[in-house]
């Protein structure tokens, strides 16, 4: 995706946000995304120099909160479990302190936090939730191997009888190796 495409997507997302939340601005501040489902309260607290732009980015990106936002959508009469938005305008110099404050306040209010850290951008930033491990090339290979093992086990159990061409030590070792590969996790 090139910069023009990103800007076009963000512009479309800003228009959608302004139609749903007319009071949203590009001011500096803290934003709280919250939702309730089956009596369980969820929240995410973020800081930004440009509130409207940052919320539009969340609609485009693929991080933890962004995926949850895509999955649950925005609050409306038709979507009562969607995310609501609260914004608190503040000076740029107050962003770290206020973000940390509102994360703690949401925790005290019983929200399950979607933040991965206790907030802030400076030194002393602490982790409050597990990060998903980065997925790389070898992780993809391992997942592919596991998928093929599952599929082969299913096919063998359901449709095939495995027999040896020759009943000798080499064939028996090869069959044992084959089953060992299928059983690896």
Summary?
The protein has 185 residues and is an alpha+beta fold. It has helices at 3-20, 51-60, 64-72, 95-108, 137-159, 169-183; strands spanning 29-37, 40-48, 84-89, 112-113.
- For the secondary structure, the number of strands is 4
In CATH, the architecture of the largest domain is 3-Layer(aba) Sandwich
Derived from helix and strand composition plus strand pairing, the structural class reads alpha+beta
**Could you tell me the radius of gyration in angstroms?**
25 Å
Mean pLDDT over the residues = 88
Structural domain count: 2
Helix and strand string, N-terminal first? HEEHHEHEHH
CATH topology of the largest domain: GIY-YIG endonuclease
Shape: elongated
Biggest sheet layout: 4 strands, mixed
Instruction: List the uncertain runs.
Output: none
Report how far the terminal alpha carbons are from each other: 36 Å
Structural write-up:
This protein is an alpha+beta fold and 185 residues long. 48% of the residues lie in helices and 14% in strands. The protein is built from 6 helices and 4 strands; from the N terminus they run αββααβαβαα. Strands 3-1-2-4 form a 4-stranded mixed β-sheet, with helices on one face. A hairpin with a 2-residue loop joins β1 and β2 (40-48).
Q: Keywords, please?
A:
about 50% helix, GIY-YIG endonuclease, alpha+beta, 4-stranded mixed beta sheet, 6 helices, 2 domains, single chain, about 180 residues
